## 1
Amino acid sequence: MRHYLTTPIYYVNARPHLGHAYTTIINDILTRFHKLAGYETYFLTGTDEHGDKIVQAAAQANVSPKEYADQISALFRAAWPPLSVETDDFIRTTEPRHQNVVTRFLDLVNSKGDVYFGEYGGHYCFGCERFYTEKELVDGLCPDHQTKPDFVSEKNYFFRLSAYQDWLIDYIEKRPDFIRPEGYRSEVLGFLREPLEDLCLTRPKSRLTWGITVPFDSNFVTYVWFDALINYVSALGWPDGELFAKFWPAAQHTIAKDILKPHAIFWPIMLKAAGLPIYRHLNVHGYWRIGQSKMSKSVGNVVEALSMADKYGSDPFRYFLAREMSFGLDSDFSEDRLVDRYNADLANDLGNLCQRATAMLVKFSGGRIPWRLADAADVEWRKRLERTRSTYESAFLSFNPKGALIAVWELVGYLNKSVDLEAPWALAKDPLKKDHLDAVLARLAEGLAYIGALIWPVLPKTATEIWRRLGLNPNRFSLDFAAIFSQLPHDRPLIADAPLFPRIEVAKGQDSGPKSESAPKSQDLKKPTKPAEEPSAVSQAQKVAPAAASSLSQIALSDFQKIQLVVGEILTAEAISGSEKLLKMTVSLGEAQTRTICAGVAKFYRPQDLVGRRVVVLANLAPAKLMGIVSQGMLLAASQDGQLALLAPDSPLPAGAKIS
Ligand code: ME8
């Protein structure tokens, strides 16, 4: 099987920003996953360079549209390699190879009778480059730009979308995963319940010359969306290109919800009208928001968000984007969240595993991965790896990168825990336990090697580094764990090196007043330039399984059951005058009445960032008066080294959900 993945081609009226980076990185991740699974792939991105928007932006910059497009397109092209994005092609709609295909495509649909000449008067928004009907305007304004559209009446060519409406409804209804996730498929079907209007296919040259001249009337240029969508086939050399024959049947497009209609309605109908096969999937994601508002290109913070990749590294940036966003839903971007994920998932979980595994192999096996005999634990071990592989694969195949990462991190957690349980440092003290020790160490090396392969789509540099340390050849990444294990070297020592992800410490003693989420504040964060001194395997292991745990007095389950923990939703949060530490919150526990809860989190959270969050609440704590306010419960939080994190359910269960 083959896979052809595409990003939208981005308008050259703005610099690359976080939103563009997300779609492009996600496509890179999916392309790499397909490679890992042994498929042939082709990955396309590019820039959309015609139309009013570009003419206006160029005029503002005082250069010609072509010069302007050249400059910005070059910025897009240069933006991807530093993010470890490897594309097979980069198409520009001003290239002759594209323009020729658009001309040919137009000729074809025209010859089939799907184009007619007519007059149209309507409300035209230059920002959106489209006409709006009276009904679509909100208080007479464009719903996207909040500007008053111009009334434009002109003669134009039209494309008969309406003739294909029933065909399209039937096509989508028969294919549950054509548009995914499901919410967007329903949205499109909902839209198709109203009669489709034909698409205005041209713009008169009297108004716009920056476009592709239509072949059947030199007084008109092609509407920018009709021009742009064709990039997906022009880049493959339609109609006779080898790449077209090979990859077009395997096409899937990835976009954000803003451009659902052109991709889900115009494009399949254009393909059908021209007699081309329809693409296989349309993958639609939500928006990144910054500071709760929809990202907009006019706001500099979206570009600034992209600079987080320079600050924290491209691998952590890719990981954060893929792990944080549930594909299809909106997500909030903030530097704090990125740092939290970095510390929790990369420094603590993955980095710690790599550090412990390699340090223990050095300490207890002279750096060599021991040969070992199959033992009883192997059956369970292989079953677990099979499970990880199948969850990981099916998550990626249904375009759910977050789900795939969760599956890998379950394996990371399992291995970290198994080190604590197996306690290699104790086995090493008993010569009779040598076989057992070897098996434990070898499985640790195997697990780390497999995790290295599985993270490669998202964290390519880290994966390569883990494999280098294990002495494996990174050109051999695959999903086949048995094949990977057979390549593990047993005759030369592995490399125990500096931590992969030194923890990012939030500097102590700083003013922890409100932080701007958009502006990265390097002074707030201290990234160790030198990796922390490598702890010995034993001390590291003890850190994870504190010896103190066993000296704590034990409780019966019935004691624990006295504690009523539930999911709460924070409805309001505000500072309490006179208190540096406390915030006052209204929290819903799914009861008839909300509760007032005071919590000592003011140094760690801004009130406005807490609203809407799910938290874990101790619900049956006796009320207490704090700063004159009766607090009716307690929020649970973890803290260490001056940092604090509120606990939250892994997915947003409703307020009142019981925790046991
Ligand atoms: O629409 N969150 O180009 P464009 C997530 N040229 N992704 C976002 C985003 C956000 N807040 N903002 C933008 C165009 N994106 C046309 C496409 S295709 C034939 C023509 C991403 O530069 C997302 O992929 O406005 C969205 O669909 C795309 O940028 C829009 O890019």
Note: The chain has three domains: 2-303, 333-487, 557-659.
## 2
Amino acid sequence: MLIKSKPSISDHEITDPLIFSQRRQILKAFAATTLASAAGIGKVLAAETHDNHLTATPAEVVKNYTNYYEFSFNKQDSTKLAQALPIDPWSVEISGEVERPLRLNLEQLLKQQTIQEYVYRFRCVEAWSMVVPWQGFQLANLLKLAKPLSSARYVKFTTLFNPQAMPNQLTSSGLNWPYTEGLRIDEATHPLTILAVGMYGESLPKQNGAPLRLIVPWKYGFKSIKAIVKIELLKDQPATAWNQSAPNEYGFYANVNPAVAHPRWSQHSERVLGSSFFTARRETELFNGYGDQVADLYRDMDLRRFI
Ligand code: MTE
């Protein structure tokens, strides 16, 4: 069993009460799954890390310190600017090396998934981290609906392209729009890899990637692409936005690794968002602490070379 309950993370450590937002499509979809009420939330807590004190970061910090370059290069402004993004209706295409290409609207998609809570540490390549209780489902459970072919070796994710609502998509900022990301198929189907539709028991705030974003907890945060509209299964490794813009700084793998410095800063430690002065920094862990679950995926790779 790769995911197990972790008794050291108790409910009272999750800062905010579990309150559901009024957003129609999420509520409906939640009700259709296990989430008829807050009490019905199935809890799947992060598997072992070396840290026995995985305390959720205050929700207000997570909502007000975001990286969403389609809106702003500043971490505070997207909170407001992202509210202009229309997310209902929303649909996701699953295509490429699959037997059964699909286009699902969000409601249809969520009806077929069991939403659970995943409390993960999230480590940004900029050397800060937070702990977030996400509501979501395993990506593997969505991909299998499309019946991947054996030729599917990679998965590419694409964010919505809507320059009217996402003004930076009209600028040349060094990133190619729309934002894209990718995983190897075994990474994408790993049980820790989820698509999140909520956090802190509420539907996902727009600035945090509503209505649907990827979360890969052992990789740097830029892999966790927001506002996904397309998921393609591919034979070959896809080009991805950050990797194209600066390949020596942002690798395709981007596994959290304190031993491999970013060319412009060390990755040895991280600033803990929302923490008190005394706990403000922590040592960064290989694979962000999820090594017991994922190290095997990379057993044949030189982690210093495949950044
Ligand atoms: N996805 C899109 N579409 N656009 C972005 O700018 N930023 C990435 C990632 N996903 C980004 C994105 C980066 S750099 C990080 S660190 C995380 O989202 C930040 O997630 P958060 O803002 O919810 O903390």
Note: The chain has a mean pLDDT of 86.
